[in-house]
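User: For my dataset I need records formatted as: sequence, then structure tokens, nothing else. Please produce one.
Assistant:
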Amino acid sequence: MSIHKFDQVQLSHGGGGKEMNSLINDMFFKAFSNPILTSQEDAAHLQLSGATAFTTDSFTVEPLFFAGGNIGKLAIAGTVNDLAMMGAIPEYLSCSFIIEEGFAIKDLQTIVTSMADEMQLSGAHIVCGDTKVVPKGCADGIFINTSGVGKIIKQDISVKNLQADDVIIVSRDIGRHGAAILMARDSLSLDSELTSDCATLWPIVEQLIAANIDIHAMRDATRGGLSAVLNEWASASDVGINVDEKAIPVSSEVQGLCELYGFEPFDLANEGTFIIALPRAAADKALEIMTQYCHCDHAAVIGYVTEEHNGKVILNTPWGSSRYLDIPQGELLPRIC
């Protein structure tokens, strides 16, 4: 019996019988098809050599669909981006679904299709997975876990490698994902075309690596946003970081939402924005690659590394004052990824 004859996911779709086989064959195998996955072994048989990056993440975003993406696109982009930030080619992914009984089949198909589409941007493949269906009320729609493996082709990218006089570059305007989730969650009807920045970053990173850019550190600014990344770097490398607030790209829509809710854009999550630390001499070339070849139109140098105030991030304001840019505290936006 085809999965598409059902309107909703049933408990039997996780029971190991005909319905589960239909779900796996008619939807998952069809969308994610590759020889390793469709061999249907208990574990994927991989050929790995050299330095390898391995990461995992779980996704529980609320709402599941938002302007610019959905939980499926987010799951693939998020894990691929974690590999990319380590200078690793995204190669193999695992994917596990926890689906609530009653979840709409058409919504599940939309999520799965978006995952397949997003993988094409990096060349990664889902080679193993798992499906669980839980009784209604035991999960909030759908949760997805993805793990990723990739070959490291650019060594020595680390949070501990920042050096004095490195510059800090952000790839695009910040805070879009957190702001888009906020709008969707609170059903705000604003005259705005704000979308999440949810996107796969490997194509950009691949170009930087191919150009032999001397990357010291690189991180996608997800939960905790720009503030969290810069504070983690300052602490791990035992350096100070100075940031110019005027240089940080923030869209008018994000700025307006922050003023409305009392948030700071530096603290809001991103899902397709990364921060890079590299020698000052390499900054112009990196920006040229990012803006001309990778559509990072708002990429900008926003600060530099110093040997003063080690472990701290200093934000220089447009009014000539300075303050600490602290790591975010408390709960700003629940369920953002």
